[in-house]
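Data availability (excerpt). All sequences and predicted C-alpha cell strings are deposited with the supplementary files. A representative entry, ABC-type quaternary amine transporter, is shown inline so that the format can be inspected without opening the archive.
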Amino acid sequence: MLELRDIKKQFEGKMILDGINLKMQRGEIVSVLGPSGSGKTTLLNIILGLVPMDSGSVIFDGVDVSNIPMKDRGFNIVFQDYALFPNLNAYQNIIYGLKNRSNLISKEEVKEIIDFLELSFHLTKRIDQLSGGQKQRVALARTLVTKPKVLLLDEPLSALDGVIKETIKEKIKEITKQYNLITIIVTHDPEEALTMSDKVLIINKGKISQYARPKDVINRPANNFVEEFILHQLKVKKENIYNLFGECYA
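C-alpha cell line:
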C-alpha cells in the first residue's frame, strides 16, 4: 500500500499542495485529475522522489520513504514524451536501465515483458521507425524491466488516438493486475480517468476535491467544482453524461 500523509508543498510562497492524504492499494490504478496548475505533476514528482515536499510523509508498505533517494525507492515513471534514446534501437532502450544492475531481472523475465507488450518484432528498429503506440510500449517495457513497485505515468495517452489509444489503455490495465503494481496516472482527460481507473483523485488549488471510484464521481460528485470540472472537460451536459459512462452506473 502507498499512503500519503499530509503532503504540503510551496513554490515561491505559493501553496501548490495543501494537506494531501490518501491511500492506494497494489493492483490498483489511480488517475489524478485537475485544472492546470492544481498540483498534479508536483504530486507525482513528490511520490517519485524527484521533488522534495515541505512537510508530510510518503509511506510504502509501512515504511516511510520520504527521505529515501529517488533511485532507491523502487518507483519508476513513464514520461509524456517517452524519453527514449534515438541513437539506440528498441531493445537497447528497453534494457538501458539495467546497466550495472544485471542481477535485477533474468533474461527470461525480460523476454516475458517484451512478449507481453508484443514488441518481439520491433526490437532492432530505430526509435524513429516506431509508431506512437510502439514507442509507448517500449517506454513501458523499459520501466517494467526495472521491476518497479509503483508505476507512475505522466499523460501516457496524450499523443495517441483511436485504436492505438484503446490498446495502450488495456495494456496498462493488464500490466497493473499482472505485476500487482500501484499505477498512478496524471491525465487532463476525464474520459481516460473514468474508463481505465479503479479510483480517481481530483485536485483543485492543491487540495483534494474528491477521491473515489469512477461511478461515485459520476453519481455522487463531492461538490460543485467536481461536477462542473468533469462536465466542462467532457464538453457535455449533465443529462448526457450517462450516454458516455452508462457502465459506471452499474
